[in-house]
Amino acid sequence: MTRTTGRLVDVAKTLLVPVVFVLAWHAAVKLTGTRLIPTPREVGVMLWDFTFGGVYDDAFSKTIFVHFWASVKRVYAGFFLAAAVGVPLGLLIGRVKLIRELVDPTLQLLRPVPVTAWLPLSMIFFGLGPNAAIFLVFLGAFYPIVLNTTFGVRSVDAKLFEAANMLGCNGSSLFRQVVLPAAMPSIFNGLRLGHGFSWILIVVGEMTGVPQGLGAVIMDARMLSRADLVISGMIVIGLAGFFSDRLIVAVNNRLLAWSPQHRV
Amino acid sequence: MSDPELHRSAKPTLAIKGVSKRFSMGDQTVEALRDVSLTINKGEFVCLIGASGCGKSTLLRIVAGFETVTSGTIEMYGTPIAGPGPERGMVFQDYALFPWLTVRQNIGFGPRQRGLPKANLDEIARRYTDMVGLTRFADYYPSQLSGGMKQRVAIARVLANDCEVLLMDEPFGALDALTREKLQQELLEIWERTKVTVIFVTHSVEEAVLLSDRVVVMTAGPGRIEHDGRIPLARPREVSAIDFNQVRREITQRLTSHLTPSVAAAA
Q: DSSP label at A175?
């Protein structure tokens, strides 16, 4: 088998399931004659109109970028906030016994509360608007980041600390030169997980009455009974989450080039 | 008499006096070492040998400063050892290299902690990378190296930090026979060249007789020194020589003479 045919086979394997899925979807809509679910073609038309306009020319035509950008800003605001608090806190919990004893029990108690259950309180704290959504994203991303960072620090081979001590590396320098890089694979695990939750929670967060954002579009489309727009919104979120994840993976692979088992 | 160098050289490199070590595991106390005394002079190559549980690794970790003694004293040039330090460099069996640093950066880690200027650092890292023959692999990460190469990096890492006592905890135990032989030869060359003092823990009699000036035989339960003797063989040594085998047999007997009665008692 030549390289080209080998690659073609790979592409075919990747595409097989999605193609079958779309065909089955089409067939199911046609066979049942339902009017509640659009065909893949109708969703395609909606996506086109959502992006370029010229088909329906209504309130949603050509607005994809506005909504996309609104969601991206909130996702990254919440996510980076979670990383900025979660990584240092995780490092401290993992390394400093007193902080672990003070903070960890509270974290473990709060963690089982589903982030979506915070929605009413977040609306009271932050009002109707983007800040409530950012808060939810922050909470959703925070737990996996802080827990994985803590785990990463706790599982550093004790010999590495001994080696560093004997080579004259102590205190804060040990933190920066040994603890942080050694925990990096776990930290990235947490960042990836947290990032995934960010895109889940943005939709919940934006269902609370913000005018723009992909979650808001889905909510509005539901009220208007426009399933084609609901599905279009889902597709855009899926793609945005996917490419956003690839970005993190790219950074991960660059920073963790030293560890073959942590390359994704 | 006020010359500090003169004063320093008058003291032995390491003086271990009446050292005992007890660990508590749950509500049990394990006596790892009982009343161990040992004096090691500058430039000596000393092997600690014994069955597992004889406390040889514990003794090494105490010298490194990773463990404290329960009683007794341990001094380097007359100064009590208070913790890990660059003058005592440990080479671990499983390497303990920093996996996120390249060969060059691992070797330069110690000098970097001392805040040397960059040019100086590069020069030290290069010199010691060359010394262990890894110039071609200077920019590789540990995960890309074989076990033998990793152990070379670990040796260069402590030598680059000007260590005076090289502490080696079964350093070649995880290597295949051919690589082990090669590294043993390289270690001897480095030792002869740098005049570093070596304390080498092993459970291979052959390795001990091949490498050391002095073999310290330890026995278990609790760990103590059974025998401390010089190896009366000229270097380079040949493992298949008759006198080599004689020495090896003597030491093996010393090691096993204490195993046999306990086996008999157990039976």
A: I
If asked whether residues A2 and A46 sit together in one domain, one would say no
Q: Which domains does chain B have, with CATH numbers?
A: 12-87+166-174+194-267 (3.40.50.300), 94-163 (no CATH)
pTM to 2 decimal places = 0.84
Cα gap A86→A94, rounded to integer Å? 12
**pLDDT tens, position by position, A61-86:** 999 999 999 999 999 999 999 999 99
Contacts A178 to B, Cβ<8 Å: 98
For chain B, give the secondary structure using H, E and C: CCCHHHHHHHCCCEEEEEEEEEEEECCEEEEEEEEEEEEECCCCEEEEECCCCCCHHHHHHHHHCCCCCCEEEEEECCEECCCCCCCEEEECCCCCCCCCCCHHHHHCHHHHHCCCCHHHHHHHHHHHHHHCCCHHHCCCCHHHCCHHHHHHHHHHHHHCCCCCEEEEECCCCCCCHHHHHHHHHHHHHHHHHHCCEEEEEECCHHHHHHHCCEEEEEECCCEEEEEEEECCCCCCCCCCCHHHHHHHHHHHHHHHCCHHHHHHHHC
A77 and A58 within one domain? yes
Provide ipTM, 2 decimals. 0.89
| Minimum Cα–Cα distance from B94: chain A residue | A159
Report how many domains make up chain A.
Answer: 2
* Rounded Cα–Cα distance for residues A196 and A210 (Å): 21
Q: Are residues A25 and A117 in the same domain?
A: no
> Which tokens hold the place of A147?
């827990």
Distance from CA of A90 to the nearest CA of B (A): 20
Same domain as A225, residue A199:
yes
Between B52 and A241, the higher pLDDT residue: A241
| Distance in angstroms (rounded) separating the CA atoms of residues B88 and A165 | 11
Q: How far, in Å, CA of A83 to CA of A141, rounded?
A: 8
The Cα of A161 is separated from the nearest Cα of chain B by a number of Å equal to 9
**For position B2, what pLDDT does the model report?**
46
A132 shares a domain with A56: yes
List all residues 6 or more positions away from A117 whose beta carbon is below 8 Å from its beta carbon: none
Q: How confident is the model at residue B8 (pLDDT cuts 50, 70, 90)?
A: low
Tell me which residue in B92, B113, B143 faces A159 most closely, judged by beta carbons: B92
Residue A253 sits in a domain whose CATH number is 1.10.3720.10
Of B195, B174, B187, nearest to B131 (Cα)? Answer: B187
C-alpha–C-alpha distance, residues A217 and A228, integer Å:
11
Q: Same domain, yes or no, for A21 and A106?
A: no
Is B94 touching A (CB cutoff 8 A)? yes
Q: How far apart are CA A215 and CA A69, in angstroms?
A: 12
* For chain B, percent of residues with pLDDT exceeding 90: 82
* Chain A contact for B113 (CB, 8 A cutoff): yes
Q: List the domain range (segments joined by +) for residue A61.
A: 40-262
**Residue A30 and residue A48 share a domain:** no
Are residues A51 and A161 both part of a single domain?
yes
